[in-house]
Amino acid sequence: MLRLMILRLLHNGCNVVILPHTLKLLGSSGLDDESAVADLFGLLDEDARKRVVVYRPKTIAEDIEIMQSLDMLITSRMHAGIVALAYGKPALFFMPKDDVKFLDILGMLDLDVDAFAVDAFDLKEHEKLFAKVEYILDNLSKMSSHIENQVNSLLPTVKKPIEFAKKLIEL
Question: Rounded to whole angstroms, how far apart are CA atoms 31 and 22?
Answer without folding.
Answer: 10
